[in-house]
Give the backbone structure.
Amino acid sequence: MPHQAFLEELVAQDPDTTLYELRDALAMAEGVKVHHSSIAALLKRLGFSYEKNRW
């Protein structure tokens, strides 16, 4: 995905960001509209997880 680095940077800056926030940021910054599940699939392939860590 051509916007992979952009999404990775956003997640690195704020690991608690939601898929919807990532989707909206991508649309605003790059003018690209994708479904949040597409972002989830990309992040999963990159090894990211949305599991919450306990203290």
In short: The chain has a mean pLDDT of 88.
